[in-house]
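User: I'm putting together a small comparison set for a docking exercise, and I want a reference complex before I start. The sequence is below, and the ligand is adenosine monophosphate. Could you produce the 3D structure with the ligand included, as structure tokens?
Assistant: Of course. I'll restate your input first, then give the structure tokens for the complex.
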Amino acid sequence: MQIIKTINDLTLALSEFRKKNPAGRVGFVPTMGFLHEGHLSLMKKAREQNECVVVSIFVNPLQFNNPDDFTGYPVNIERDSSLCKDEKIDILFLPSKEEMYPETPLISLNMPALVETLCGKYRAGHFEGVMLVVSRLFHLVMPDSAYFGKKDYQQLAIIKRMTKDLAFPLNIFGMPTMRERDGLAMSSRNVRLSAQAREHASLINRGLKLSLQARSKGNLNIEELKEIARDVMESGSMNRVEYVQIVEPNTLMDIEYLEDDTEFVIACAVYTDGVRLIDNMEWPGE
Ligand code: AMP
């Protein structure tokens, strides 16, 4: 595995690979590090489908609307590199902030239709920052395929659409959410939870599950389904629900009426002891 810190070296390594393997496919997994099984599942898929796999770790300052969240974001590059090695990653790209943004970008990307709902409503500038860094990374790596988690459902929808709108010649794969035994979605932020908060955090997925259970028993009342989820989450005194929404899977628009065959995503953000956690589930499930 090559560990690369500059754009120049990345370009050289990729052109070397492409010279030797003209038909070789490049798979790309962008991350912010502090890797867990969720990230590794993306890498495994990328490894299966490509001759060269590039993983990036870059904690993108532009996508943090809360400076404390940025400075407190967990980092462990040594452990991450060793996990990437185990996954047989070819190139681990670790750019500095100066390398990624030699100048403060003047361009801004937006997609109001998909940004002004769910998390975007509460995290001003977040998805603009995500779009900018992902499009820069796409230009640098020029992958054939890129892999993202459904855990960040809104992010995945935005990136799929950005890829279409800007005609990036690559495939986007959305991978299932990896969870802890009790259902909590794996997240780099989970390490910030105390033992007690960790228990309360497990109510987040429990709430979503119970809501879908009610749906499977025939409940088509949107308000009731959201209420079920919210009540379970709020039964943990350390949980503060930011939102629970039931949206259309592609447009992310709020659904007003459910019919028997309506597909939807129930998504939420919850602060557990001050740590912002997100989760979602699709109906019908996979
Ligand atoms: P992050 O490092 O949090 O920016 O995440 C990097 C990629 O891993 C994103 O595409 C995430 O959606 C994905 N990811 C994060 N957590 C999970 C998870 N629990 N299951 C599957 N994918 C995940």
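The chain has ten helices and nine strands. The longest helix spans residues 195-216.
User: Thanks, that's exactly what I needed.
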